[in-house]
Amino acid sequence: TGCVSLVVCSHMFHLGCLREMARGTPQFLQCPNCKALHGEKTGTQPPGEMEVLELNRSLPGYQDCNTIQITYRIRGGVQATEHPSPGHPYQAIGFPRIAYLPNNTKGKKVLSLLQEAWRRRLIFTIGSSVTSGLKDVVTWNEIHHKTEWHDRGGHGYPDPHYLDNVLMELHAQGVTE
After folding, report:
1. Mind listing the GO molecular function terms for this protein (predicted)?
2. Does the pLDDT of residue 26 top 70, yes or no?
3. pTM for the full model?
């Protein structure tokens, strides 16, 4: 078969190879050379709720603004065909999970992109927990969140690089402005 060029990155592939790559994820394709996403990447996050509140309190390192609080609620259930063990139950341990952002320009941008990542089902997935070792549980999915107010275990503030880092992680998942 012939060769075709990907639209976003212009890398060339055999048509048969591209068809094989697209078989597992027909809604998007990720270039194996440069990781550019073609189409809209969606995930396997189970159903739940994302709630956003504004707190009249400043995070450490962001005394010039108040705080955005994000609450994620997911309950246990039965895995669908897209999950690792279809038909088997999964647990949602540690929910609701709460995360914090500074309520400034960059924090609002991150919030908007996190809401899009939530819509695309990219924030959580079902798998094995790295921290507990449990299988068939809801876990974070490569987009880090600050879940502590003060930095006790690397999950809190102050962290002057967090907003830039999470923007890069969102970009890697295909979630951009």
Report:
1. ubiquitin protein ligase activity; zinc ion binding
2. no
3. 0.83
